[in-house]
Amino acid sequence: MKRDHWQQVIARLDPETDYEEISRIVAMHEFPWDSQQSLSFALFRTYAVPTIGRLLFDTGEFTGSVQKRHDDTAILLETIAAEGLESPDGRAGVRRMNQMHGSYDISNDDMRYVLATFVVTPVRWNERYGWRRLSEVEKLAAVRYYQRLGRLMGIQHVPADFEGFARLMDDYERETYVFDAKARAVADATLDLFVSYYPRPLRSAMRRFSIALLDDHLRAAFDYPRPPRLLVRLAHASLAARGRVVRFLPPRRAPMSIRDTGRIRSYPGGFMIEKLGTFPATMPQDDADLRLS
Fold first, then answer.
1. Which of 137, 155, 139 is nearest to 147 (CA)?
2. Which one of 4, 19, 213, 219 has the fewest beta carbons within 10 angstroms of its own beta carbon?
3. Is residue 287 part of a domain?
4. Containing domain of residue 105, as a range?
5. Is 27 inside a domain boundary?
6. ∠200-203-204 over CA atoms, to 5°?
């Protein structure tokens, strides 16, 4: 297989109809590590919106059971993407998310913002650190994929193109980002989980490394100390250097999933999609099904 094998496959697909297949190739063959990292950062930045950060704190799930919440979120999103939005497992995953979200008073604006971070953050990550930039076809496929997911989740007024998603994300962050103690606690718990994947002597350094990668306005919203400029440059340069090395590696033949990384710890014996996530005052089953059209 030549290095551009998957690019040639994508070139034969139509992003208007084959957006799921293109998105799977991007996430599981071309950029598996980058996709996982960028989506983690996308979720992390949503905590800085006070209404989101406070809700996550008040449930107690993102501070008291952060590993399980991480695992549930990762498995649900990956199952939907890998199996397909219209597949039985994909529909079960979307239904499970709708049931959880329907149990809380979450505004459409917050839901749209989270959706926008999933579209925009991976593209910007690849522009800065990827072994190549995403093509316009790949970007359009991501837009179409999340537009469809947004419809299945009942999200209203979803942007029509990538530029619309980018404006939505940037504007919403300017309008809403402000320090909130509960949001900071959720961010701290998430960072604690992230560094736990590394040997204990490295954890303090990895925490500083992670904060150095944050956008200035995101770091300020959590009131994290400003990292030294040298550390910021080194953090960004190290990821860019990794991308330059990956450029010379052969294409990935088998798809790589988050479950292959060893970071899913909650289900050593397997799982059922219908049992993932939280179960507060769950929305009626027919309400969840009504959105899946």
1. 155
2. 4
3. no
4. 15-250
5. yes
6. 125
Nearest to 82 by CA among 259, 275, 284: 259
The CA distance from 44 to 198, in Å, is 19
| Helical ranges in the chain per DSSP H | 5-11, 19-25, 32-46, 50-59, 61-64, 66-83, 88-102, 108-129, 136-152, 162-176, 181-195, 203-213, 216-221, 229-246, 285-291
Q: 28: which DSSP letter?
A: I
Cα-based distances in Å from 245 to 126, 129, 132, 249, 251: 14, 11, 11, 7, 13
Q: Which two tokens stand for residue 18?
A: 């084959």
Whether 239 is covered by a domain: the verdict is yes
Angle, helix 50-59 to helix 181-195, in steps of 10 degrees: 70
Distance CA 258, CA 247 (A): 21
User: Considering the entire predicted model, what is its pTM?
Assistant: 0.92
Q: How far apart are CA 153 and CA 98, in angstroms?
A: 6
Share of the chain above pLDDT 90, in %: 80
